[in-house]
Amino acid sequence: MRALASVTFCVAFSLIGASSVHAASPADEDADETSTRITTRVTAEGLVIAQVRVAASPAAVRELLSDATRSHRLAPTTISVKATADGACEKLQLSTRGLLSPFKLETRRCPTSTGWRETLVRSTDFKEYWNEWTVKEDGTGALVTFTTRTLPDVAVPESFILSQTRRVLAKLMRGLLGALGER
Prior knowledge:
The chain is an alpha+beta fold and 183 residues long. The protein has helices at 2-7, 58-65, 68-72, 158-179; strands spanning 31-32, 35-42, 48-54, 78-86, 89-96, 103-111, 115-122, 126-137, 142-152. 22% of the residues lie in helices and 40% in strands. Residues 1-34 have low confidence and may be disordered.
């Protein structure tokens, strides 16, 4: 039961992967049903990648995503998030939806040259967890990519976890579009 809860995730968000992973194919890159601007796919390595092109400038997107608390709240599975400074990075205390009880984890989020990377510090609910936002100039706006690899400590097939993660990331990107006023 608890395994199913984690599957609906944490992406942040970011989440998930393990037994029947397959190579990316055109079916993996299907556009989100409510927005053809959002695409999601799964790689052979078990990464889940979501992308969206936005009209907002890269600077505006970076400004929005620079707040770790705000960026985590774009995900429908985030229950609570508390950020504290940790040098140039931030330590986050996250609570995400689980089936029977919330999943809790501590992560570290650091800036990169193209966005932010978040890695697992501690959790009894996850074996592996990391995610990365990248924001790049794209002609008239920005291409925003969210990549994640998350493996909850549950007995659920990785293929199921990956498919649920794709759904969550599509919702995450819809949240980003809404926050940018681009629904």
